[in-house]
Design goal:
two-stranded antiparallel ribbon; globular; alpha/beta
C-alpha cells in the first residue's frame, strides 16, 4: 500500500525492548562484562531482525528510519547495565520509575549507582514517573514491572531463573510477561548458563510458567540462536502481512461493524484487528 488516498498516513516502525533484572547486590562478582556482552548480542540480533522485517514490509510504514526504544527502570544492577548497552548501540531510552525521581534515586545501592542514574536520566528520550508511594515500595515496584512489560514488545530478563521470592521482583515480572504472552529473552546470571527464549506462544493452549519446558527454546551455550529471533520479533509485534497504512479498522465489539480507522499505536495488543 503506497498511496496515501488508500487510508490514513503510515506510522513509523517502532520496536520496543524492555528489561527486568536483579539489583547489584544479587549479581555474581565479576559478572558484569559477561552480562554486557550477552545483552549486546541479544539487542544486535533483535535490531537485525526488526530491520529485516521493515525492509520486507516497507510499504506498510512511514519512510523514516526505524525507532529502536529500550525500556528500563534504571535501578542499580541489571537495569543500568542493559540501559548502558542499549544507548551505546544507538537505541532510545525510555525510563520508567516507580515514584518521583529524587526519592527513587535515594533507594539505589550506592553513590556510583546514583551517579549513573543521573547520567541515564539525562540521556533518556522519555521519562515516566509512576504515582507510587515511597512508603509502600513493594506496590510501587509491582506497578513498575507491569508498566515495563506493557511498554515492551520483547522483554530481556537478566534473571537467576528461580521462582518469585516476593512481590515486585524479577521472577514475578517474568511470570507476568509469560501470562501476558510477551516474549522473554532470558539472560542467566551464571556465566555457563544458556541464553534462551521463554514465550507462551511455544505452547499457547495452556497458561504456562517460566520453568515449564513448553515455553523454552533451547539455544547454543551462552548465545541466542540466530534462527529464533526473526520469528520472535514478527510474533511479538503481532504482524500479519500488510497493515493498512499503519492504521487498523476498529470494530464495535458488541455488533461487529466497523466504526472507523484507529492509529495502531493507540491499540492495546488484545484490541488489534490487522488487515491482510
Amino acid at each position: 500500500m503506497t498511496s496515501s488516498a488508500a487510508g490514513p498516513p503510515p506510522v513509523p516502525f517502532v520496536l520496543c525492548v524492555g528489561v527486568t533484572g536483579h539489583r547489584a547486590d544479587v549479581l555474581p562478582a565479576g559478572s558484569v562484562p559477561v552480562l554486557r556482552e550477552r545483552v549486546r548480542d541479544v539487542l544486535l540480533q533483535i535490531e537485525e531482525s526488526g530491520r529485516a522485517l521493515l525492509a520486507a514490509e516497507r510499504n506498510s510504514f512511514a519512510l523514516f528510519e526505524p525507532r529502536l526504544r529500550f525500556v528500563s527502570p534504571i535501578a542499580d544492577g541489571a537495569d543500568q547495565i542493559a540501559a548502558d548497552v542499549a544507548l551505546e548501540l544507538g537505541w532510545e531510552l525510555q525510563a520508567i520509575l516507580p515514584f518521583e525521581r529524587t526519592q527513587y534515586r535515594e533507594s539505589l545501592a550506592n553513590h556510583g549507582a546514583k551517579e549513573r542514574f543521573d547520567e541515564l536520566l539525562e540521556q533518556a528520550d522519555c521519562l515516566l514517573e509512576l504515582p507510587g508511594d515511597p512508603g509502600h515500595t513493594l506496590d510501587a515496584y509491582v506497578m513498575t514491572g507491569r508498566a515495563t512489560v506493557a511498554h515492551s514488545d520483547v522483554l530481556i530478563a537478566i534473571w537467576d531463573g528461580l521462582p518469585p521470592r516476593g512481590r515486585g521482583g524479577t521472577g514475578e515480572v517474568v511470570q507476568l510477561a509469560l501470562t501476558r504472552g510477551t516474549a522473554i529473552v532470558h539472560v542467566p546470571l551464571s556465566p555457563g548458563g544458556d541464553t534462551r527464549i521463554l514465550w507462551s506462544a511455544f505452547d499457547p493452549t495452556v497458561i504456562t510458567v517460566a520453568d515449564d519446558p513448553g515455553v523454552a527454546s533451547s539455544d547454543q551455550p551462552g548465545k541466542l540462536q540466530v534462527s529464533s529471533v526473526p520469528g520472535l520479533v514478527i510474533g511479538s509485534l503481532g504482524f500479519k502481512g500488510r497493515i493498512a497504512g499503519g492504521y487498523a479498522l476498529e470494530v464495535d465489539r458488541s455488533h461487529g461493524f466497523p466504526i472507523g480507522w484507529r492509529h495502531l499505536l493507540d491499540f492495546q495488543v488484545h484490541d488489534w484487528i490487522l488487515i491482510d
